[in-house]
Amino acid sequence: MQFVSTRGGQPVALEQAIMAGTAPDGGLYVPTELPTFKAGELPVNAPINEFAARLLQPFFAGSALAAELDSICTEAFNFPAPLRGVQNAPDALSVLELFHGPTAAFKDFGARFLATTMSRIIQRRAPQPDAAPATIVFAPSGDTGGAVAAACHRQPGTRVVVLFPDGRVSPRQQHQLTCWGDNIISLAVKGEFDDCQRIAKELFADPDISARFNLCSANSINVGRLLPQSVYYAKTSTDLQHERGEGGRYIVPTGNLGNAFACAWAKSMGLPVEELVLATNANTTIPEYLDSGEWTPRSSIATLASAMDVGNPSNMERLRNLWGEAAELRSRVRAFSVTDAQIRAQIVAEFERQGIAWCPHTATGFQVYRQQLDDADRRGRHWIVVATAHAAKFDEIVEPLIGEQVAVPDELAKLLEWPAQFETIEADAAQVVARL
Ligand SMILES: *Cc1c(COP(=O)(O)O)cnc(C)c1O
């Protein structure tokens, strides 16, 4: 299968789309033709890694990596994505738990798949004994940093430079960026998040540095992060169809639209995704676009669901490419925005109902289910709220609301025990180069 920019041009191979991240024309890579699956073609109740290898096979067709897809999926999908029923819901309601990976957020799926695939691409290249390892330099926002660092840790031929603003990340988040060592270089930059991003951009823009250190990108628009995310939508809708004769209706907490777009892909691949509803925070670019037809990207505003603070969601370009403009999109997808006050109220309300603390992102999904869908939408229908992170990652928000400590999942607890190691540098690209 070949991949092409959303803005047209010449198709490229899977390897090139993955290593480049963004297309040279600034567009995003999508497959030239989406494969489609007929009912019964995909296995029911299969282990997630086996299901993934089957679903993703057409995307790897013709690539030298095709023979390694099984092992890539075994390595990348080594944790589950369980669908759990919710007690005390008026009608059938389940939660799709995407937080059982090493850093307890759904970004582990994309990051692990991308890192294992990249590492194999690099190892297949003609070995040059003195070649620099592929170096991923990035200034992650939210959950991405920990997930990518975890996924790349000790991957052969790869190293990662994580830049984060000194003193401006929560202690638990900072720990997930700095507990690795080995091939992960963590640098606290004396400055803001924007300084970190500027430095990463400057390094990429310098052809000399970029070639000398073999720089590559792992940003969230990499097609290698989206492909694995379609797996849990395809799998749960396949299993539900088999069990109840109807696929899944998903409410997806949404920021940059990567997770929800993967659900749209699954639907377009012929899987029984009955409905797709987006829950955004107070960053309302997407719901306003669906209402008015005007695409008005803007700066983001800070909210409690900070990993969704995106004012210019880049994957909208892919969604419009797949399903069309607002007039067409409206018939296939709905979007609701949720305020910080509603997030707080939902965290409390669901804790009272279920005895479970949900993270602020997941709470936007519950708010949409409980308050923004109407009775006719809910009656007799089985909805699925997608849980994008574990509440323990956002302890400083969740614990005061529920008046209890949130138990830290084992995987995350292990990371928190590893010693942190990082250097502090001035906000200057040359200081990063000096450490490569
Ligand atoms: C990244 C993230 C989101 C938003 O996902 P997008 O793919 O950017 O829409 C939601 N919740 C959590 C916990 C995240 O880390």
Total number of helices: 19
Q: Would you give the CATH topology of the domain at 80-105 and 224-407?
A: Rossmann fold
Radius of gyration, taken over Cα atoms and rounded to an integer in Å: 21 Å
Mean pLDDT: 93
Uncertain regions: pLDDT < 50 for 5+ in a row? none
What is the number of E strands? 14
The strands making up the biggest β-sheet line up spatially as 4-5-13-10-11-12
Question: How would you sum up the global shape?
Answer: globular
Helix percentage range: 40-55%
Largest sheet: 6 strands, mixed
Distance between the termini: 35 Å
CATH architecture of the domain at 80-105 and 224-407: 3-Layer(aba) Sandwich
Summarize, please.
This protein has 436 residues and is of the alpha/beta class.
Structure description:
The chain is an alpha/beta fold. The protein has a domain at 80-105 and 224-407: Rossmann fold, CATH 3.40.50.1100. Helices cover 43% and strands 16% of the residues. It has helices at 14-20, 48-60, 69-76, 107-124, 144-152, 171-178, 193-205, 207-212, 223-244, 258-268, 285-292, 316-323, 326-329, 340-354, 360-372, 375-378, 395-402, 410-417, 429-433; strands at residues 2-5, 8-13, 29-31, 83-85, 93-97, 134-138, 158-165, 184-190, 215-216, 248-253, 273-280, 333-337, 383-387, 423-426. A 6-stranded mixed sheet has the order 4-5-13-10-11-12. Strands 9-6-7-8-14 form a 5-stranded parallel sheet, sandwiched between helices. Strands 2-1-3 form a 3-stranded antiparallel sheet. A hairpin with a 7-residue loop joins strand 4 (83-85) and strand 5. Helix 4 (107-124) runs parallel beside helix 5 (144-152) and helix 9 (223-244) crosses helix 10 (258-268). The radius of gyration is 21 Å and the shape is globular. The chain starts with a strand and ends with a helix. The mean pLDDT is 93.
